[in-house]
Amino acid sequence: MAGETDEEVERRRGSAEQNHTEQYGIVDPDRIIKNPLQFQWTLWYQEPDKNKSWGDNLNEVATVGVVEDFWRLYNHIKSPSDLKTECDCSLFEQGIRPMWDDEKNFRGGRWVINVPRQQHHELDKYWLDTILCRIGEVFDNPEEICGAVVNIRQKTDEIAIWTSTVMNRDAPMPEKP
């Protein structure tokens, strides 16, 4: 409108956009507040192919750095109980590959939870609890935990928490309430 200041034009435009959003339920992605994670996390998937080396079978799926992106990713991938036998799924801090040759894992160790096949239906819950504890910084020394791996095997599935140092046996223990 003639004679309006830039501020008045912007206010009117914002009001029109708000009315449009309310009327049609459209959300402007630039106006959504996201909740950052302490670190960025990379999801890895490995399905064995005898024609490739172990490292070549390792596939980087996605990296997330905010809570909303983590849930978006998690809700659109297969659950561990739906993966084929001999497949692995890993969630590691960005920049750390889920392999012992990685500099961060080289002197590390792992804590393993064995899940017998008769409890395979519980695997998804155990896996989700494990990765939420890691990305949620529940552990006493979170900087010593590199990531977590779920291995789907014929007789017993495994969930492992990988640590950067094998000598610190208390590193992966959750905080006491």
Task: Tag the structure with descriptive keywords.
177 residues; 28% strand; 6 strands; alpha+beta; six-stranded antiparallel beta sheet
Report on this structure.
- The chain is of the alpha+beta class.
- Helices cover 23% and strands 28% of the residues.
- It contains three helices and six strands, in the order αββαββαββ.
- The protein has a six-stranded antiparallel beta sheet with strand order 2-1-3-5-6-4.
- The longest helix has 19 residues.
- It starts with 5 loop residues before the first helix and ends in a 14-residue tail after the last strand.
Report the total helices.
3
Mean pLDDT: 85
Strand runs, count = 6
Low-pLDDT parts are none
End-to-end Cα distance, whole Å, is 61 Å
Question: Radius of gyration in whole Å, from Cα?
Answer: 22 Å
Overall geometric form: elongated
Question: How would you sum up the major sheet?
Answer: 6 strands, antiparallel
Helix content: 10-25%
Summed up, what is this model?
With 177 residues, the protein is an alpha+beta fold. 23% of the residues lie in helices and 28% in strands.
Write the SSE topology:
Blueprint: H1 6-24, E1 36-46, E2 58-66, H2 67-74, E3 88-93, E4 109-116, H3 123-135, E5 145-151, E6 156-163
Antiparallel strand pairs: 1-2, 1-3, 3-5, 4-6, 5-6
